[in-house]
Amino acid sequence: MIPFRHGLIKFLIAALAGLVAVSAVFAAPVPQSKKAASTPSPTPTPAPKLPVEPTVITAPSIAKPRSEYVLPIGQTYVYAGEWRIFSAGIATLRVEQAGQEIRVVGSADAAGTISLLYHVHDRLESFFDSSTFCSRSISRNTEEGFRRVNTNVTFDYQRGKSVLDQKNLKKQESKHEEHDIPGCVTDLLSGLYYVASLPLLQGKTYNFPLNDGGQTLTVDVHVETREQIKTPAGTFNTVRVQPETASGLLKDKGKIWIWYSDDVAHIPVQMRARMSWGTLTFILQRIEHK
Question: Is 77 within 8 Å of 268 (Cβ atoms)?
Fold first, then answer.
C-alpha cells in the first residue's frame, strides 16, 4: 500500500489544487529497434553558416480571464475518489469572496477501506486577485499517517520572491525558503479555476507560471477532445485537458486529465490520475450552494 499511499496524497494535493491539474509528466521516449540502433545514420553535409536573427522567447504569463467567465462564488464542488473497486477519498473545492480578494478552500480525506489503512486529512487555502489571477498566498495543513505539517507560502511581488515557511509538528522541525518568481503566478489550488477561465479551444495548448513555494513551473495545458461524462451530479458535455510540466509532483510517474464542462462555467466535472500503481478518479457528486 505504500506506493498507493504516496500516490493518493500527491494526487489529492496536485489534482484538487489545480495542477491539479498541474503536475503531469513527459512520456517516456520510444526505444529504437536493434536494427535501427546498429545502422548508423548518414552524416549530413554541413550547411554554410548564415547570419542568425536573435530569437525572442516570450515567458509564460497569466492571461486575463475571459470576460464571460464568472467565478463560482459560494459554491462547493464535492468529489468522490475511486481506486479500482475501492472508495478512495472525498474531496471538496469551495470559492468565497474575501474582501477584495478571492478565497479558495480545498479539502482531501481518505475514505472507505483506504481510510482504515492510512489516515489522510488535508486542508488547503488560497487567496488571489480575481481581476488578474495573481496568487497572494497558499497554505496547507497536512495530516497523512503520523505526519503533521503546516505549510504557508506568500508571494512578494515587490521583491519577486515566493516565501515558504513550513513546520513539521511531529519532528519539531522548521524550514524557510525563498525563490524567484515572475510578476504574476498562480498556485496549485487557484490554478484549477485559472484553467477554467481560459477559452479551452480544442487542439490548443495554454501555458502559465505556477508556484507552490519552490521553483516556478511552466504548466502546459493541452486541450485534447470533447466527451460526454455521466456523474451523480448529472450528465455533462465536457472538454478534456491534460496538464503537463517538465518537473513537479508526478513527473515520470503518471498522467493527469481533467474534464471541464463544455460551457461558460467550465466546471471541473472529473479528474483522473494514471500512475504505476493504478488509476485514481475523482468524480463530481454534487454542487452545494450555500
Answer: yes
Report the distance separating Cα 60 and Cα 184, nearest Å. Answer: 10
pLDDT tens per residue, range 187-210: 989 999 999 999 999 999 999 999
DSSP states along 176-235: EEEEE--S--B-TTTHHHHHHTS---TT-EEEEEE-SSSS-EEEEEEEEEEEEEEETTEE
Mean pLDDT computed over 65-73: 92
Q: Is the dihedral of CA 2, 145, 287, 74 positive or negative?
A: negative
The answer to whether 64 and 274 have CB atoms below 8 angstroms apart is: no
The helix (run of H) or strand (run of E) holding residue 35 is helix 34-38
Angstrom distance (rounded) from CA 270 to CA 259: 5
Residue identified by cell 474582501 is 99
Query: HSE of 99 in the Cβ direction (CA atoms, 13 Å)?
Result: 5
Give the C-alpha distances (Å, rounded to integers) separating 110 from 77, 88, 94, 120, 276: 17, 6, 18, 5, 20
Q: Are 252 and 229 in contact (CB under 8 A)?
A: no
How many whole angstroms separate alpha carbon 201 and alpha carbon 22?
18
